[in-house]
Specification:
41% helix; 174 residues; five-stranded mixed β-sheet
């Protein structure tokens, strides 16, 4: 299934990109509907990665526990983002999955566990190296600090469009 308005050649290229890891990292996107808690958001995204074999059985529990101790909500505008993740031992193969929430979900703010932010977009990281995690976080923050880009990201209507933004616009992977 290609994007509407694309030629057959463009569609084949897009499907190939979507089916492969790029630079050794798997990228995916999920449209999150009817999720009301950060636990539900993290669980749904972690289950998706687990189902594809990118994380261990312990990844979801470890990520949920880590989110309590070290919150990942970032107060961007016009809505916040969150970047939950786990330790490297819970990662089988590196992956980043983008979750776009249909309604805002409360996460604790990074560095201020007593302060909540309303999150519309979540980037679940399953990475093995501290350096790559810092680089991914930098790319995410740089993209999301621009209101118009963040609004455009949350307004996407398909996982394909979300993945294209994730891979090409946020992480500049070619």
């Amino acid at each position: 299934a290609g994007r509407s308005g694309s030629s057959d050649v463009d569609t084949r290229i897009w499907e190939k990109v979507m089916a492969e890891e790029l630079d050794g990292v798997f990228y995916d996107a999920v449209m999150l509907t009817n999720v009301a808690t950060k636990e539900a958001v993290i669980s749904q995204l972690a289950d998706s990665l687990r189902g594809k074999g990118y994380v261990t059985d312990s990844y979801k529990k470890a990520t949920l526990e880590r989110e309590i101790l070290y919150p990942t909500g970032l107060p961007t505008t016009p809505f916040a983002i969150a970047v939950p993740h786990s330790e490297r031992e819970n990662v089988v193969r590196e992956a980043v999955i983008l979750g776009i929430c249909d309604s805002l979900v409360e996460f604790a703010e990074m560095g201020k566990s007593d302060s909540a932010v309303s999150v519309g977009v979540v980037f679940l990281l399953a990475l093995k190296g501290e350096n790559s995690q810092v680089n991914y976080l930098r790319s995410i923050v740089n993209y999301c600090k621009q209101d118009a880009k963040l609004i455009r990201l949350r307004a996407v209507t398909s996982t394909e469009e979300a993945c294209q933004i994730l891979v090409h616009d946020i992480f500049n992977v070619s």
